[in-house]
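Annotated sample (chain length 242).
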Amino acid sequence: MSEHEISKHTKAIYKEWKNPHHSWKHKLGEILTEIFIIVFAITLSLLVERWREHVHEQTIEKQFLLGLKKDLQTDLAQETEDSASYAALKKGWTYFQSIGMGKGVFNEDTIRTYEWTLLNNTTFLPNNSRFEALKSSGEIGVIENDSLQNLILDLYQNRIPALRLSSDMFSNFKNQLFIPYLLQNMRPSSDSNQVITLFKQPIMQNYFNYRTTSDEVIPLYHDLMEQSRNIIQMINEEYDLK
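Output written by the structure step:
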């Protein structure tokens, strides 16, 4: 009800109260009628407004969740590739260390297969702008399913940061120690003796031990992928999608 309508009914109450020609019983009945109209109209207006807000919130929720599904599907592809990269790094560095220790057989094809793991950095870059926008707007509560909301919050506020922390520590090690040492001591040559000599160095043997970081990072990737799939499944169930 508008302020004009409320004012009109309030004046009607006052006018009736001051009417000298009506009995107090008649006045009371008229006044109660006017009060009922005001209360009913205000209540109805509030209910309609709340319904409109709810419809708006449902629209925001659907747009967010369907967009989030696409983000997670894109992230899953990256997570699969990243996890495979760390698995290859562990396998490659184990082979390189064995060459330096004289336990492995030098094979140029195998060297070429894993040489990219020496200089490559694998860092997960989530598509989180949609989530951050909803969170910063204070509208995270539009996700009515509490279980789904908690999974999404846990994914972006706990699991992804934990993965980034672990992988960033390894990337920092490579950028600050491993790669500078490698570039300083590796000369452009296909001489197998040079490679073996470099891999024999105690510092390189020690650096290759950092391959065990894969044992920490890969499970984090797998947990992330499992939770992302669970969220996608819940979104599909929410909107009867496949």
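Annotation: Residues 71-238 form one domain.
Annotation: Residues 24-100 form the longest helix (77 residues).
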